[in-house]
Amino acid sequence: MEFKLPDIGEGVHEGEITKWLVQTGQQIQADQPMVEVMTDKATVEIPSPVTGTVADIMFKEGQTVEVGKVILRIDEAGKAKAAPAAAPAKEAPAAKQAAPEAAARSAPAQGASKSAHRETAAEPPAVEPDIPFNVLATPATRKLARDLKIDLGGVSGSGPNGRVTKDDVQLAFEGQQAATPRTSHPAPAAPKAALGGTSQQSKMPVPASRTPVVTRGAIERIPLKGIRKKIAESMAHSKRTAAHFTNVEEVDMTLVAQMRKAANKEAESRGVKLTFLPFVIKALIPCLKEFPFLNSSLEDDKQEIVLKGDYNIGIAVDTPNGLIVPVIKNADAKGIWELAAEISELSEKARTGKLAIEDLKGGTFTITNAGSIGGVFATPVINHPEVAILGVNAIRKRPVVVDDEIVIRDMMFLSISVDHRVVDGADAARFMNRIVYFLNEPSRLVFA
Predict the structure, then answer these.
(1) 0.90 cut: is pTM over it?
(2) In the predicted structure, residue 231 carries a pLDDT above the cut 70
């Protein structure tokens, strides 16, 4: 069978073969990893769909392959090999003889055509730089280098493990531009002398042409490519399509903070980093069950609202390559420790580009957490085609009134953006009230 590079999801059109895990002639089993492919979003291992023998590997490590291209051939176990394709028929002698005769007959006409037109020298074809396969760089970075005609072999990588980034390529291009003399503004010609004598202007010294001054750092142009381009397209599509409405609510996280602090030793013994997100997810699930339209999507082409029976929570992760949203599947069936471990694992995979294809699919609701960075509250953009996204913001100690007394509490703002075409503002407010209800008193989750 011919195995084609599959659609790796989320608008990815190509991938780089970073490592072959099999070799020609090797026996492989179904679901055995065959190849490691790096895209602009993640590095994934692709398994074999069948049991058989690797017959032919079509691409080398380091080459970029478009989705749908055949990357290897497998002789399936228990199936006869296909007959080899017939060799192309040899050209008949008569055809060979006819070719020079036809050329001889057309020669006079061609000569006449040449004499009728002015000859022009053909421009040599543009030569693209040779991109060495052993340079560590994403497909988007390689394409940028080809577009700017930059040799990646001579670029020092500033990314992890010496990976060449788009910024490295851009700096190399700017350095190349700065070193190239500019001839677009020639020095003005000296003024001509007036007729009948020497003019005063002709005696004036002609100023020498100045060396062009190249200003670095004032203006920088970075092509919108790769994952940043996909983020831009997704966010713009969401804003153009969904009717965004944001509701902000304040929540007292004092008891959750105390509970988290009390569990620190247990977290250390489990080797898990316990953040506030698992508590937010646990409070979120009963609210999504109570308000099912917030756990839905809107299919614009069919004009249908799709209510989801699964609770797959996407977690927006800030990475060096941009915002990536891995998904925690079946979050309603997982406890605090399971959620904490999976959040840590997916976040690390996202930052190192090791997410699997399935880690990025199937989300029904998204949480974006900017609280660790700062900010009172934000108006997040919906992760289309979902209809809602919850913003978790910074927790800060503030004086508040509790039972007619001013006390210091750990306060946080939650902000939710919803698609007003699907969710009414009143329902969004009720939804937020329920989240606050559970986070103010986390013991209530036991009975949720």
Answers:
(1) no
(2) yes
